[in-house]
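pasting for ref. prot 1 ->
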Amino acid sequence: MPPLVYRFVVNGELGPRYASAFEGMRISPSGGKTEISGAIVDQAHLHGLLDRINPLGLTLYSITPVDNENGAAGAQAPLPASS
């Protein structure tokens, strides 16, 4: 099975210094949020990326599986707001 492409959106506009934390992913800041997208090879990879978000002080806004790297959206899975 080929890797699935996911789009993570975090609050805040991330700069280039975050590139190493999300190696192999595309980081696109805009409008007060940052989209982090790319191929996820398996569940361990997905959980590894999720485990990096909180220690960096980032707030996860949403995770969306996409049909391809051009951004065609699949079913969106928004996360509840943290308190």
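and prot 2 ->
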Amino acid sequence: MLKELDLAGALARMKDGSEKICMLVPVSKDTTLEELMQAKGFALTDTKKEEPKPKAEKPKADKPKRNIDTGKILALHKAGWTASAIASEIGCSTPTVTKYINAEKEKE
């Protein structure tokens, strides 16, 4: 879509640099630079700038919060159980067990 402009409007928008300006001049293989310089027709190219489409957010799966028995983890650890054995007993991951054990060590 083109919007026709006069010379002053074209120059103002060219100076701004935010929009593209086209010259409306019939051109043939014999058109000279001087003829192009004397052009009186200008047009503003499509003024609608497409907004980038927002990325669709993936719905987060709500993980049910488990109630981890910290006391049981610590008791089993003090009884000599390994972190992986405790994790199997509690029903959580080994890194989770390790996190609770390390947190308790930091408190002491």
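The chain has five helices and three strands.
The radius of gyration is 36 Å.
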